[in-house]
Design goal:
The protein is mainly alpha-helical. It has one domain (about 15-125, about 165-415). Helices cover about 60% and strands about 0% of the residues. The chain has helices at about 10-25, 30-45, 55-75, 95-115, 165, 170-190, 215-220, 225-245, 250-260, 270-275, 285-290, 305-335, 340-350, 355-365, 370-390, 405-410, 410-415; strands spanning about 85-90, 210. Strands 1-2 form a two-stranded parallel sheet.
């Protein structure tokens, strides 16, 4: 009796595709398990990472206490959410990627829903968050071709015409591709991130700051800078960002603008289908050509409402970064001997971002080019020239004091609105 060929029987192709759909199907608009695996793999370069040396934690804890005291003195306000002290969470690059993906997940979920055109509609049927396959059907439930259980929400077609099955492949490919893109994006950011506020996106309400000792050491080596100077600079930057973004009204406004922006992309139902149609199974390079450019997921889908939000988001971000730079300059020169050369290297680094940085900035509306930093610096300088440090100290005291886009470009308007007299009269 001959053994049947694994390619015989007429059902192998359908069974294979059924298994593929079951593997890819997930609850929600993003395949998060895949995103986590990709993010951590890219961040670590696929190689095991050693645990952070306890001595690194001790040294960073010592330096962050110094930074905390000086930033609190320079800003005249508390630097923490709890009123206690800032602590450090030293992590590997892969751990940074994991924590960041989790922290940004609500924003990325909103983005994915806006790109897919609505609420989750894949893999329904009482499954829970994080499930990566369909639930097991009840005995006697309908089964697809070849005896395979159907993927929830999908018609596997008939044995003679599986086109119904193939035509719906894009419904599971969407969450899979977004998982790949989001995971790769965060993984590439993790390759160079030194702290959690490389982008000014609020994190969970905690006074524990995440830092990446390996990246801090690599930067110090690459630029021939004293390691402790770089550590202290990162501590100062992280604490100053935290002092601003940790304030409830600033945090709420930033998250409101970010959420409004990422959820406002206009759905283009043909975009994914068009890109999938360009893939030639016999030509692996076609996959890279079709999906290798992450910005292709967005296309030209920005709406007028998003452009209005973007104006407000850019203004608030410019004010934040301008203020952080001012505090850093006033404190850093006193504490860091190599502050001039260190600051020049770090500021050059932040405007020479890679593709992953630019993609995530575009996704969130946080395109931090040199023009944005110059705009923030000009705003802070204008406030100081007209009202001094006392006026600048009012910037983050209440939601009413947050500057509007016109006020960022004309600081006198901001001072007039919040009724602070200026030296101009």
């Amino acid at each position: 009796m001959s053994t049947p060929s694994p390619f015989g029987g007429g059902n192998f192709f359908e069974n294979l595709l059924g298994d593929l759909l079951k593997m890819l199907a997930t609850q929600g608009p993003v395949h998060w398990e895949l995103a986590r695996q990709v993010a951590q793999g890219v961040a670590s370069g696929g190689q095991p990472e050693t645990n952070v040396d306890p001595l690194e934690r001790i040294r960073l804890e010592e330096l962050v206490r110094v930074a905390d005291l000086h930033v609190a003195d320079a800003t005249g306000a508390a630097t923490t959410v709890s009123g206690r002290v800032v602590t450090i969470q030293p992590v590997t690059r892969a751990e940074w990627a994991w924590h960041t993906l989790e922290a940004w997940r609500p924003l990325l979920d909103s983005l994915a829903r806006s790109l897919s055109g609505g609420p989750d509609d894949v893999g329904q049927g009482g499954r829970h968050e994080g499930d990566v396959g369909p639930s097991t059907p009840e005995p006697g439930a309908p089964r697809g071709p070849g005896g395979q259980p159907p993927v929830p929400g999908f018609d596997l077609g008939s044995e003679q015409d599986p086109s119904g099955f193939l035509g719906q492949l894009g419904q599971v490919m969407g969450p899979t591709l977004l998982g790949l893109q989001f995971g790769a994006m965060v993984g590439h950011l993790a390759e160079r991130a030194m702290g959690q506020y490389d982008l000014p996106i609020p994190r969970a309400e905690s006074d524990q700051l995440m830092m990446v000792p390996a990246s801090i050491a690599a930067f110090a080596t690459d630029w021939s800078l004293p390691l402790d100077d770089v550590r202290l600079w990162v501590c100062l930057s992280e604490v100053t960002h935290h002092a601003i973004l940790g304030r409830p009204h600033v945090r709420a406004r930033m998250l409101e603008l970010l959420e409004g922006y990422v959820s406002g992309f206009q759905h283009d139902p043909s975009a994914l289908e068009d890109r999938l149609s360009d893939i030639d199974p016999t030509n692996p390079s076609s996959l890279q050509q079709a999906l290798g450019d992450p910005t292709a997921l967005l296309g030209e889908l920005q709406t007028p409402a998003q452009r209005q939000l973007l104006s407000q988001l850019e203004a608030l971000t410019a004010a934040i970064e301008g203020y952080v730079d001012h505090v850093m300059d006033s404190v850093g020169h006193r504490l860091i001997s190599s502050y001039g050369s260190l600051t020049e290297a770090l500021r050059r680094r932040r405007v020479e971002r890679g593709e992953a940085d630019r993609f995530v900035e575009r996704l969130f509306g946080l395109e931090l080019g040199q023009a944005q930093f110059d705009r923030g610096a000009a705003f802070v300088t204008g406030v100081l020239e007209r009202g001094g440090e006392q006026a600048l100290a009012q910037l983050w005291t209440s939601a009413r004091h947050l500057p509007t886009p016109p006020e960022v470009d004309a600081p006198g308007l901001w001072l007039e609105r919040i009724s602070i007299p200026t030296d101009d009269g």
